[in-house]
Design a protein that fits this description.
- This protein has nine helices and 19 strands.
- By secondary structure, it is an alpha/beta fold.
- About 45% of the residues are buried.
- The two termini are about 15 Å apart.
- The mean pLDDT is about 95.
- The protein has one domain (about 1-345): L-arginine/glycine Amidinotransferase, Chain A (5-stranded Propeller), CATH 3.75.10.10.
- The protein has helices at about 30-45, 55-65, 85, 120, 130-135, 170-175, 185-195, 240-255, 305-315; strands at about 1-5, 10-15, 50-55, 70-75, 90-95, 105-115, 145-150, 160, 165-170, 200-205, 220-225, 230-235, 265-270, 275, 280, 290, 295-300, 320-325, 340-345.
Length: about 350
């Protein structure tokens, strides 16, 4: 038996892959490192944090005195970029037959190491694609490592409720530069079996201008506890996203839980338009991170920030809702969830 735990399940730690001068952040390095420092501070207040960087002493100098270093592990490894959500390992729980021991079954951690190819061969990923295996070989990841590199897959492209339902987008998973030889049915069958799920909900509509990922689900709609979905809603009919996000909303209304019930839908505001070099960039409040006891929500310095925090709080009423300014992150077309990867804890 396999279980792909929900993000709100108890966590061992969160991984960050730190921005450095050899990444696309070079032109604004101090600004983005300040954002990473703020993310690190909030995570390390509550749980363990693993930071991957090519120069760990440089990172230590940046965060010492501001981040709870007792909860931080620094691991020196090379990287192309910082998007840990997509090059990080995806963890499942798998049962082992323990009838010869004191218990009938026991859950074990299995880290699935999928192929990361720079979102369909758009960007270099040779170093990033080795990070999970190198962390495991170095004793920094726990459980069993399973080689799944025959399949191109990113953590930002999938959502799990921990109870057998997956949520994804057809635009991303059916991209011709990922798993072109596989049909939609092939991909669904593979992921249901590999992740131990029972149903896969495919969103066929919705996008964000400037998104390099081919519409990762974590930019558009997120599974939440108690059969709830948080999703981006555009109410400005003059906005280029209006029609696609309206169709996404209508499709979400048709989705059903494994028990046949409709989902409780909570709308997130469409973030105010943001631009870099006259190009619209993908600001989204859906790109939040759930950690132990809190939800870290990206903010963008507008009045809509407080609305988004309130809406996220409706889906996670028992957790602290913490806003983190992510205006720096969206300048490279990602946000808070994109730069993190949680590793769950068996309890």
């Amino acid at each position: 038996m396999r279980i792909f735990p929900a993000e709100w399940a108890p966590q061992q730690f969160v991984q960050l892959t730190w921005p450095h001068a050899d990444t696309d952040w070079a032109y604004m390095l101090e600004e983005v490192q300040e954002c990473f420092k703020n993310i690190a501070r909030e995570i390390a207040k509550r749980q363990q944090l693993l930071i991957v960087a090519p120069d760990v002493e440089d990172v230590r100098r940046q965060i010492a005195g501001e981040v709870n270093m007792a909860n931080v592990r620094l691991v020196e490894l090379p990287s192309n970029d910082t998007w840990a959500r997509d090059h990080g390992g995806i963890t499942i729980f798998e049962t082992r037959d323990m009838r010869h021991e004191t218990r009938d079954v026991e859950y074990c951690l299995v880290i699935l190491d999928f192929q990361f190819n720079g979102w369909g061969l758009k960007f270099a990923s040779d170093k990033d694609n080795l990070i999970t295996e190198r962390l495991y070989r170095g004793g920094h990841l726990f459980g069993e490592l399973r080689n799944c590199r025959n399949f191109v897959f990113e953590g930002g492209s999938i959502e799990s409720d921990g109870e057998g339902t997956l949520l994804t987008t057809s635009e991303c998973l059916l991209s011709t530069n990922r798993n072109a030889t596989m049909s939609r049915e092939d991909i669904e069958k593979y992921l249901l079996e590999t992740l131990g799920a029972k149903q896969m909900l495919w969103l066929d509509h919705g996008y964000l201008a400037g998104d390099d990922t081919d519409s990762h689900i974590d930019t558009l709609a997120r599974l939440c506890p108690n059969n709830t979905i948080l999703y981006v809603k555009c109410e400005d009919e003059s906005d280029e996203h209006y029609e696609a996000l309206h169709r996404m909303e209508e499709q979400l209304k048709t989705f059903r839980t494994l028990n046949g019930e409709p989902y409780r839908l909570i709308a997130l505001p469409m973030a105010c338009p943001a631009y870099e070099d006259d190009e619209r960039i993908p600001a989204t409040y859906a790109n939040y991170l759930v950690i132990n006891g809190a939800v870290l929500v990206p903010t963008y310095g507008t009045d809509l920030d407080s609305v988004a925090l309130e809406q996220v709080g409706k889906a996670f009423p028992e957790r602290e809702i913490v806003g983190i300014d992510c205006q720096a992150l969206i300048r490279q077309h990602g946000s808070l969830h994109c730069v993190t990867m949680q590793y769950p804890l068996i309890v």
